[in-house]
């Protein structure tokens, strides 16, 4: 018995040791926060040349550490040229983002908790007259009705691009039975236009999701590599459109594409200044452009239906790629339209954003974090987290426990002070739990201009594509409640409304394609029921 107990203890010790090693590998900073422009201690005796050489060497070392971590996490990704470039870009982003902080995961969790409650405190304190509301004219309202109907029609195409995994997720009890027969059946002659693994399962789910026939599909690609996204090309006879739907993030390769967040120039024949976009998404759009144009896929589609128009759709990463693809194809197809569902904010330069308003519509649901996600917004979020945790002296476990209860069941938000005034910034010496170095800079109140991510060439401010339709929740449905129980209001929104990341229980769930689809179902049903109400009617929708 003693030997058995001793063996169990040894086994548990190995588990603890392994968990500790993994944690150290991903969390420990071997450079000790030395990569900030003003390392701890702020040595002043070094001349500028020696200081610059030291800083450059430390940055290179930090990037190497992060590149090793990224490659370890993505060890199953094929190591081609694109993957190596993505590893380098991702490591550069992480090493730059974390170079000026000294936070542990529990600090970040506490910061999110405090920000969530601070945000709700501010929202509840706003008086109705403080909320500025824009009342659109009748033509704008009719245009909104038409575009909401278009979004409702094209959203299933964007969802279909995810293939069988999303279909099974949306139909957990019946999905496998519905497409299982097609997964096991061999129909090589009917799958000539399909490429990629498990194509028969994907094709079966796409047919079920869109309700189209075999003959309506021009090309289906589930080829998935870094900077190379899956996409489908179909004929939509109801809207008389050739629809190209691009898949969103669903693999490690897609995550690396997302995290290649530098900006790069987009070569367009249109005379625009400052044509830059998200590097990873731009590379993915170029890949699909080559496939559609150089491989003759679009020519084949328009040879079947020459009178149809081109419509590009996508969700999340696919929304960004579809928007950029529309910009690239507009000269050859002047009537092109794009519908971007839950697109990333950090996508287009200001000039491209303004240019895209003529032919791209983005749809954003509720508190979805992705349309608010960009490098500059992440830098703003980091500064907000550092401010709130530096100004709170409560024990961390109390903050986290209260935050979990508040997130799950609601209640009164914590009234802890979460902003530093000038006097507190000077006097503050004991931040959260006595952590002495949440910031590796010489002052806990460093200015935003000191940020390493505020580089105007590498990480300039980027914007979402096109005009924006925001689906706002009108009635609560619980903290995480079912979308079918919630009611939403569609309205035109400005990109500035998504200039800050919001913390809340639905910031992730509002991004899911099935939740977006359900919300659109509810909005269209409500607007149809109210068609006789003043200001709600409009002409039948068409792809305008």
Task: Give an overview of the whole structure.
- The chain is of the alpha/beta class.
- Helices cover 45% and strands 11% of the residues.
- The chain is built from 17 helices and 11 strands.
- It has a 9-stranded mixed sheet, sandwiched between helices. A two-stranded antiparallel ribbon has the order 5-6.
- The longest helix has 26 residues, at 2-27.
- It is globular.
- The termini are far apart.
Which structural category fits the helices and strands? alpha/beta
Helix content: 40-55%
Overall mean confidence score, pLDDT: 79
Count of beta strands: 11
* Computed CA radius of gyration, to the nearest angstrom: 25 Å
Task: Give the ordered list of helices and strands.
Answer: HHHHHHHEHEEEHEEHHEHEHEHHHEEH
Principal-axis shape equals globular
Kindly list the characteristics that best describe this protein.
45% helix; nine-stranded mixed beta sheet; 17 helices; alpha/beta; 11% strand; sn-1-specific diacylglycerol lipase; two-stranded antiparallel ribbon; EC 3.1.1.116; 544 residues; phosphoprotein
């Amino acid at each position: 018995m003693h030997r058995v107990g001793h063996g169990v203890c040894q086994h548990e010790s190995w588990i603890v040791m392994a968990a500790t090693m993994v944690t150290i590998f991903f969390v420990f900073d071997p450079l000790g926060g030395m990569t900030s422009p003003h390392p701890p201690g702020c040595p002043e005796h070094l001349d500028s040349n020696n200081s610059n050489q030291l800083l450059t060497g430390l940055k290179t070392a930090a990037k190497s550490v992060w590149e090793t971590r990224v490659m370890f996490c993505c060890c199953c990704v094929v190591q081609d040229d694109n993957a190596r470039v993505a590893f380098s870009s991702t490591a550069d982003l992480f090493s730059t983002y974390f170079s000026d902080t000294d936070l542990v995961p529990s600090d970040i969790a506490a910061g999110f908790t405090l920000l969530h409650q601070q945000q709700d405190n501010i929202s509840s304190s706003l008086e109705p007259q403080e909320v500025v509301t824009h009342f659109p004219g009748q033509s704008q309202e009719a245009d909104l009705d038409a575009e909401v109907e278009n979004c409702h029609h094209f959203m299933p195409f964007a969802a279909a691009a995810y293939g069988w995994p999303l279909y099974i997720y949306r139909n957990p009890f019946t999905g496998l039975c519905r497409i299982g027969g097609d997964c096991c059946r061999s129909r090589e002659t009917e799958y000539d236009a399909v490429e990629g693994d498990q194509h028969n399962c994907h094709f079966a789910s796409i047919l079920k999701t869109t309700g189209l026939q075999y003959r309506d599909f021009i090309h289906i690609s589930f080829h998935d590599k870094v900077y190379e996204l899956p996409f489908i090309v179909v004929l939509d006879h109801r809207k008389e459109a050739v629809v190209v739907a691009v898949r969103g993030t669903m693999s490690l390769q897609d995550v690396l594409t997302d995290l290649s967040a530098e900006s790069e120039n987009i070569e367009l024949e249109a005379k625009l200044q400052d044509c830059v976009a998200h590097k990873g998404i731009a590379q993915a759009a170029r890949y699909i452009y080559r496939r559609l144009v150089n491989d003759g896929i679009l020519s084949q589609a328009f040879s079947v239906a020459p009178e149809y128009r081109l419509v590009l759709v996508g969700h999340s990463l696919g929304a960004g790629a579809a928007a950029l693809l529309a910009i690239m194809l507009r000269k050859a197809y002047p009537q092109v339209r794009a519908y971007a569902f839950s697109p990333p904010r950090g996508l287009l330069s200001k000039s491209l954003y303004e240019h895209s308003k003529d032919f791209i519509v983005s749809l954003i649901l509720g508190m979805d974090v992705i349309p608010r996600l960009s490098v500059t917004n992440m830098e703003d979020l980091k500064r907000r987290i550092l401010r709130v945790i530096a100004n709170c002296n409560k024990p961390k476990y109390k903050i986290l426990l209260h935050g979990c209860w508040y997130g799950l069941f609601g209640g009164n938000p914590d009234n802890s002070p979460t902003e530093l005034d000038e006097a507190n910034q000077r006097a503050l010496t004991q931040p959260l739990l006595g952590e002495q170095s949440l910031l590796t800079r010489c002052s806990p109140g460093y200015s935003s201009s000191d940020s390493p991510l505020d580089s105007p060439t590498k990480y300039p401010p980027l914007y979402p594509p096109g005009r924006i339709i925001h689906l706002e929740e009108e009635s609560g449905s619980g903290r995480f409640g079912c979308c079918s129980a919630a009611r939403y209001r569609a309205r035109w929104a400005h990109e500035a409304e998504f200039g800050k990341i919001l913390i809340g229980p639905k910031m992730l769930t509002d991004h899911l394609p099935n939740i977006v689809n359900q919300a659109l179902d509810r909005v269209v049903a409500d607007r149809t029921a109210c068609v006789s109400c003043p200001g709600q009617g409009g002409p039948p929708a068409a792809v305008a």
